[in-house]
Amino acid sequence: MNCKSKTCFLVFLGIVFVFSFPKIVFAQVVINEFSSNSNPEWVEIYNQTGETVDLSGWKIIDASDTTLSLDGCISSLGFRSFEKNSWLNNSGDTIYLKDNQDNILDQIAYGPDGIIGIPLDGKSAGRDPDGVSNWVIFDSPTKKDDVCVLPSPTSSPTPLPTSTPTLEPVTKAIYKINKAEDGNGNPLSSVKIYIDNNYTHHEDDEILTFCTGCYCDNDKNVPCGLGEHIIKLEREGYSDWSESKNFSAGNDFEVNP
């Protein structure tokens, strides 16, 4: 076999190795203690993280794929214990902890080929202290099962309905007087505005508003209510200009005297 063939063969073996074994991820929640000769048998897990972990879809299995499904949650630095009758092999077994993506988070083999011996009836095997890699046999099990409640999801505030703005009814009339001009289009000066023969102290190029309670002068001496009015412009050196208008709400007039 030449060197190139050897390289290809090694690559092939590497691929087979990667895909032939289950995925193992760094354990943040670990198998912490177990009892394989009790009734029921149980496994305790420990959460080393700073957050509550949802256990939905998680499971504990043994070497023969007997499965114990987990539920609920485990609090930060908390413990949960799960029980099942007659599922762990008394003469030795391997216990796996898997998450909801089927990743192996942790495993412990016990018995003649394991890293810890077989805990006999009334005893357990566990990490000492909690969470470390050192396994011992406990003459008195320290099984713990903390209460855990998943935090309620924060609900988004219900948006308030957008109110449709109420259109205010039109209650006034507009009368726009443009700048008065002579026959050549030149603006006239000193053009005075009268309403019903009352001087408004305004000149042309003015907008007057007619409504209930309105006035056409700043001193409120010249009423400009709705209804009929005579508008007159007094033009120095020219004859007066006037017209009669009946004002209703919503009217919008524009004149060129």
Automatic annotation (TrEMBL):
Domain (LTD): give its ranges: 17-112
List the InterPro entries: Lamin_tail_dom, Lamin_tail_dom_sf
Q: Name one Pfam family in it.
A: LTD
The organism's place on the tree of life at top rank:
Bacteria
Q: What is this protein called?
A: LTD domain-containing protein
Instruction: State the organism named in the record.
Output: Candidatus Shapirobacteria bacterium CG_4_8_14_3_um_filter_39_11
